[in-house]
Specification:
single chain, alpha/beta, ten-stranded mixed β-sheet, 12 strands, about 45% helix
Length: about 400
């Protein structure tokens, strides 16, 4: 059986028909517990039939309470789950994210970029009001596959991978890291991107445009393979799609110059990590940047902002913590769709949008808006909602629908 025949679309849970869906919720470190707890508050308040949420420890707090960053009971819960809602962990708990991604084989990182009216942005609103696209980022190869495979360049010289002249040119202290891209990894992320693009077109969200982004003018072997294989898959299996490809530095410019042009962007690991953060700023920042990481077993869903420890010091006018839970709530939208709760997923996203719409009348709504969504003139007075205020407003809007 060929690799193509073995591919299974990971965008829906393999257990989508189960009556009870189990989600392991892991707050972790930094603002992770705040935003995950707020999202769990909303999910539980939605009273979705058959949805069971288990809150489990991980990260530096788990080291204090359980003696390890990744307690056995947390791993057991993950293995028994249909999906994982994840906050963030620090470096001391890298084993957690390593298990979620490589241990479970979650290779396809979807990062939606959408402007919600009312959100504060560095761009002029008329330029971004129609922004609605998605990054499909390969998550296990590229430079990230070099984890544990970095070292001294002189080791390459000893193995005759490079010449003595190369070593002399770079010096004994030079270090290397490997960038790995495989045909199998390229094909499977290409198919996910095509499926996403096709679905967006069918829903009327996208225009059926698949944009392949990498660096083929320099990485002539790897990235030309990336373009060639994905283009071939789209041409042969998804004729309804249009394919364009771009050199990454030019594409970074185009994200700013033509912010509402894009649709489905398929991109290698590190490049996708960088450009999706740039794109998030266009629509309001990492506070509205959710994601899902998909694979053949149990996919996980997380905000892209990480642990953001500096945010913990920020307080609103009541002295309450103000980490923005919106990115985690958007991640939950992706999670519900993955689990088969399509109607609830659509309603939750609409409720998030209605909460952010309060930013169109900040004077009357600032108490339920995240700090990111109010003018800077409000910041000094702490005039913005707490993490819980924002979550409760989203739940209130959900119940109205």
């Amino acid at each position: 059986m060929s690799e193509e025949e073995k591919w299974v679309n990971p965008l829906k849970s393999p257990n989508v028909d189960k009556k009870t869906k189990v989600v392991t919720a892991i707050g972790g470190d930094g603002i992770g517990p705040l935003v995950v707890d707020a999202t769990v508050l909303v999910l539980e308040g939605m009273k979705i039939p058959g949805l069971e949420i288990r809150k489990m420890p991980a990260g530096e707090s788990a080291i204090k309470t359980h003696g390890t960053a990744f307690p056995p009971e947390t791993r057991k819960s993950i293995d028994e789950s249909d999906a994982i809602l994840f906050g963030a962990t620090e470096e001391s708990a890298l084993q957690v994210i390593a298990y979620l991604r490589w241990g479970l084989g979650n290779y396809a990182n979807l990062r939606p970029i959408k402007y919600y009216p009312g959100m504060s942005t560095v761009m002029k609103t008329e330029l971004v009001e129609n922004v609605n696209y998605i990054f499909v980022r390969e998550g296990t190869e590229g430079m990230y596959a070099a984890a544990g495979k970095e070292g001294k360049v002189r080791q390459l010289a000893k193995k005759r991978i490079i010449t003595p002249a190369d070593l002399e040119k770079w010096g004994e202290k030079a270090v290397y890291a490997m960038r790995i891209v495989s045909p199998k990894g390229t094909d499977r992320i290409g198919r996910v991107a095509c499926e996403v693009c096709k679905r967006r077109k069918e829903k009327g969200i996208g225009k059926g445009l698949l944009e392949i982004v990498c660096k083929p003018n320099v990485l002539r072997t790897q990235d030309r393979m990336f373009i060639k294989r994905i283009s071939k898959i789209a041409e042969e299996e998804y004729p309804e799609l249009t394919v364009e490809w771009y050199i990454v530095d030019d594409f970074a410019r185009r994200l700013l110059r033509y912010p509402d042009y894009h649709d489905t962007i398929v991109i290698p690991n590190m490049l996708g990590d960088i450009l999706s953060d740039e794109a998030a700023e266009i629509v309001g920042g990492l506070g509205v940047a959710g994601s899902g990481v998909f694979g053949p077993k149990a996919s996980y869903f997380e905000p892209t902002h990480g642990s953001a420890p500096a945010v913990l010091a920020r307080k609103n006018y009541k002295g309450e913590p103000v980490a923005n839970p919106t990115a985690t709530l958007i991640s939950a939208v992706l999670m519900l769709d993955y689990l088969g709760y399509e109607k609830e997923s659509e309603k939750l996203e609409q409720a998030i949008g209605n909460m952010i719409k309060g930013g169109l009348d900040v004077e009357n709504n600032w108490q339920t808006l995240p700090r990111d969504a109010v003018p800077k003139s409000y910041w000094k007075e702490g005039k913005f909602g707490s993490t819980t205020d924002v979550a409760e407003k989203v739940l209130e809007e959900y119940k109205k629908l």
